[in-house]
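JOB MANIFEST
job_type = single_chain_structure
chain_count = 1
residues = 381
[input]
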Amino acid sequence: MGQLTSTAHAESTDEVRTRLLGEGWNEPGVVRLKWITITVWLASLGGHVVLFDSTVMNYLGQPDNKTDYISLDDVIAARPEYIFQNHVHLDQMRHASRIATATGAKLVGAQEHCAFTKRDAEVKGLSGTVNCVAVRDSQGQEFTGGDTYGGPPVDVLWTPYGTIGKPDEMPSGVDVKVVNIKHTQLRPYPDSLVGNEGHNPDVSPYAKNSPDPQQALDFAMTQDYEGGNLLYVFKIGDFTLVHHGSSGSLDPLEPGQKEIKAALRSLGAGDRIDMEIGGIAELQNYANGLLDAQRYAEEIGPKTYIPQHHGNWNPPATAAAAGFYGPWSARISRIPEDRRPQLCFIVEKNRGMVFDIKTSEWAGDNVGQISPIGDPGCYNG
């Protein structure tokens, strides 16, 4: 996939998608996954190009909207059909309004996610319309959410934790479920006070690409309210993919944890989940290590696991992804064998490649191939 390239002519949408996702991205039975940053992925689900979350930058506060391998302009040129939004924080949703207004991509999420994106587009003076797709529970009620990141642990006013819903609209040939979960939190539970794992502060991004006053102002003026936290389950043929940016507390003392655990366990009750892309490092950096992420993986029980939210996106509070390889490998090994996934670890340089997945290879108990297009493939330390 290589570094950002310039072209001699204006690329068509299909040409951009081919450049970013590789030849054959639009074939039936093919899933392509390209990690952009943090929890953000550009994906093709059987030919439907979508985004998981919507921030495009190496680290929050840098003066340009790009990583070393892909820019916000690239994402807009690829014209995703949907943005499946996890929650409203800057690291997940910095550019939703820009992408939605420029491309017509439909924003899928809770009521607050839609309201924020429309308001952000208005504040920024963006032309174009923000089109939203509501997520609803089995009674037809729209998902709503508060701020589990810093607010109360109960859900009196919002969609109950563990509720499973569906979007009003989905890409053809793709079934989507949504689970209302929690953001990672600092909790003083005895089981959670396991300390820091894999976090080695690094401020080098500031030297390489330091913030400018305009970016700092944009950063300061953007609302950082969660608005509820969602986990998505995508079913494409014989392949089932779970994506969640945060892994909120599942401690036995945490309100709502029983309902969330029951919902997570139900996802693979009929046919084991094939892949989980899950957040492993957020507030866990400071107190409870990787414990909650381990609990999510154990409840979901995927065949394979790809970590995210573990790169150096907010230095020095964050650290390079490779530092989490050893600790997370150890955490995976503690999961009972019948629910333990194989690990495909990613680090910053994986952004230059695309994972190619053939859905037919994952039928039943089969564990299919995760084939890299470009280098370096899964990181092995």
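[summary]
Residues 1-6 have pLDDT under 50 and may be disordered.
The chain has one domain: 13-373.
exit_status = 0
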